[in-house]
Fold these 2 entries.
Entry 1:
Amino acid sequence: MKVKGYLEKVRELNQTVNPLFQYLGVIVEHISPEDTVLRLPLRYDFTQGAGVIAGGILASIADEAMAHVVLANLKEGQTTATIEMNIRYLRPIKEGKISAVARIIKKGRQIITATAEVQDEQKSLIAYAGASFMVIKKE
């Protein structure tokens, strides 16, 4: 599927092009070349043994938000893959909804760098992530 077609379909409420979004319950608020906003209603089964949302859930929503802002910057015939990512967890969260807001930091021809802020419903920062994405030519 072409990038633009995918980005149109993934915005649909009952989309089927991104199984991870379906599984987690991710809601696409906004995707553009400037920024992407993904929302995730938290569920009990996202908690780990200490009773807070697992860091992997926060990392997943951050990675996906960054990947989608990168996708919005690609040309047809290109795709992307995360080649490195770091995340800093700033405070725990147990319930509610979170949003991941991603932006491009540097757009190179082969590597694109992005950041994501994971926020709670009051827009308090829960985690901060950064990643690099390789631009891949589809064959």
Entry 2:
Amino acid sequence: MPKHREVRRLPWSAAEMFDLVADIGRYPEFLPWVQGMRVGPEQGGVLVADMIVGFRMIREKFRSRVTLDRPRSVHVDYLDGPMKHLFNDWAFRDVAGGGCEIDFSVDFEFRNKAFEKLAGMFFTQAFEKMVAAFVKRAEQLYGPRG
């Protein structure tokens, strides 16, 4: 079961980073392996999203419930797809001197043991690539900050 938690300080505000992460309909524009996204209407800070992820010959659909608490957090609950479970949390906090601290955690397990093994082999590289994609997107949207 791959698990990861990372705390990182970034030069953008908590509100800016929240808005970037919460705009899940745009994930196919910048996140690797995200091939499609359908987002239901937001009701009381909660929405349901279907994400299609693909890598080489593998293509899977995930359904999740996303809870938004602007600008503090984004919480993802897995509803349906190829996983046994998936938990994903983002927390955003402005810091003195500018910028914000992001606390990101993910914990998942595939039903298919072959997928689980494959995910475990590439998890660190894939995670780093996805984090880099969020940072690059922030630079595109908000500009580089010193």
